[in-house]
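Fill-in record for Family 43 glycosylhydrolase.
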Amino acid sequence: MGLASSPLHRYCADPDLVMIGDRWYLYCTEDGLPDWSSRAFYVYESGDLCHWTRRKILDLDQVAWWHGGQGAWAPCLLVRQGRCILYFVADGQIGQAVAPGPTGPFRAAQEPFIARGDYDCLPIDPSVFVDDDDVPYLLWGNGRAYMGRLSPDGLRLEEGSVRSAVPDNFREAITVCRRGDTYYASWSENDTRDPSYRIRWSSAPSLDGPWTAPQVLIKADHAKGILATGHHCITRVPDRDDWIVAYHRFARGGQGDGCHREIVFAPLDFADDGAMVQVSPQVGSYWYPARNAVTP
């Protein structure tokens, strides 16, 4: 397939972008299938966010608790104590798999990490946040957002640490990042099949708040044919104040809809007062380190 406006040249969604050493690793949902029915996870590796190598890292047939239900969605990666931990969604539950490196092979745990019914939400769309004190957190949810502190090795949730909230018009894909003394929460609103799917953000001096009034981070640009801009991640380039947002949208041209989505990258800037600057979606995709667009 062409997909000239996406550097992956494939239907993909739900990005999680991680930089390890001088390499980028992207974990995402394989898309282009009815009802989001992918049965495997892949990692994409790049040196510039433009040219990518794709490798399979986990098949749902290798997940003991998956019995052919809903597909493989929304993976994210945490690096802890020399191991890579993949959190992922299968059959509407969050799983966990461990590997010695970012390209696998990953071995899944025998039971779901967060099972359906454990909390008052659909347990999907995990993301990880590691605070400046090296404490890791897992976030997830649909309709209600949850966050829990992980153990130092990332293999379990600390007892009594889980909290929940419903950010303004929250739908899914909650994520947190920190810049200096400010925490930023951002999430998706509406439905991924809705052209108005978009990203909002809020900030606070601590994870306990108080949180500012939500503002738009990325929304559709109908004039450019860019629709359904949502389910993102925010990544800081290590040791630099350079930030990148990856998000998905309807694939431009052809079959663009909620099951045919593409991933692109954009620089994320901050105003003098610390506010996130609203991203202006472009047809092409950003690449690093030079701030240029890869245009079709």
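KEY FINDING: The CA atoms of residues 145 and 165 lie 5 Å apart.
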